[in-house]
Amino acid sequence: MKNLILGLAPLASMAAFAQERPNIIYIMCDDMGYGDLGCYGQQYIATPNIDRMAAQGMRFTQAYAGSPVSAPSRACFMTGQHSGHGHVRGNREYWGGGNFNYQFVGANGNTVTDYSVVGQEPYDKDHVIIPEIFKKEGYATGMFGKWAGGYYNLNDNAKSSHSTPDKRGIDCFYGPICQFQAHTYYPNFLNRYDPKNYGDTHVVVDTMKQNILHKDVRSQDPDFENREQYSADLIHQYALRWIDERAEAIKKDGTPFLGIFTYTLPHAELWQPRDSILAAYDGHFCTEKTFGGQSGNWYYKNNNAHAQFAAMITRLDVMVGQIMEKLDEHGLAENTVLIFTSDNGPHEEGGADPNFFNRDGLLQGKKRSTYEGGIRIPFIVRWPAKVAAGSESDHMFAFYDLMATFSDIIGVDNYKKYNPKGEDDYFDGISIYPTLTGEGKQEEHEHLYWEFHETNMMGLRMGNWKMVVSGGQCKLFDLATDIHEDNDVAAKYPKVVAEMKKRIRAEHVENPLFNVTLPQ
Q1: Which domain, by its residues, includes 374?
Q2: Distance CA 183, CA 92 (A)
């Protein structure tokens, strides 16, 4: 793999093309905690490009994911529904059972077996998602990274779910349909849907031909280290080429684009190219951590987990820098809304150690928790045409506000008209366009809501009051004075507790696939 730092493309001086509606590039990384970036207080990891992006745009301090775990959080973004209303509320998998029967045969005769059905619970086919709205509005749409909104059958596409990128408004896709497949960065295959360049009529398998010449991660065999096709870089390079294509299209006809870049860094296998990015950290921490590997979850072993994690964050930062340079190169930066965020709080998987890197202990809780650490995330927006550089906002919002926000950005007055179930279906978002641009009055949420069946937790934020429900038991915190959520004041404020319980019960709609215990 080329060294990402040394391989940056030179900038070209080009004028911006005439274009009525803005482009949007939404970068959602995987399991980055609130404090993992320099612009959010990180002291051990270099993130100069994302820090620069924050300096050129707006940094939010009270932005929230849709859920404390991947698939449902992404579903909240895609559907404009919170996790008490949406269909996908957990990482319901379709890769288990007896379907480990798809074989890849390498040129050297090496045979690698993988799952033939891969993916998660599909999005509701009768509820519109963001790329479908943009497609209807004449936008070109691309998605690069994790899909996590349906499953794919490698043996028979006809048996794939009703919700794969090719069926849900995406023009071009490259990455893993299945988030479990994304656990290893040197996989046997990725998925692709690219009619323009490859003539694809549906999602297909893109075999990693060099990787399958060697042992896979399940073996924990050192031969795995000879795999060279690093998925994070392949996905990123595909996304950059797509930006090039869209820039050429804008020259021809002014067609704007929506890019959803769901990059897999920094979750969760701490293994990557041994280049200058990793070398900058390897051996430089006063204490290190060894991880023995976990074949069941496809995490390879290492003896430098801290260096690996830090390098993955910096590697992601380099990628963001290359996206920014690509927009400059094509004269698209001024009229492109560039967003950076994370799908949920920090993880402890694959040997990661969030406590080591976030020693200030600002937030309690990690991934899978409805405490602040599991759901409060970094969120940065750069839009030179509209968003003031160096600005900061404490406006409180969640991922399910982004459907309404994106619609406002591109001038769609009534995005609900595209919903198959009609406008009376659940839509929970409030646009943050006024906060971004200073145009109009910002409407505020009366409360924000979360639920997650796997840990049987719920959460509600009402102003500065925060209720955490675990197994039906409630705790109340005042975030104005207790952001770490240490002091349960439920006994002191029974009326507040009663009101918040009432709101939780009102927001929750039963879903037999994802059961939670309501407040007692």
Answers
A1: 24-455
A2: 16
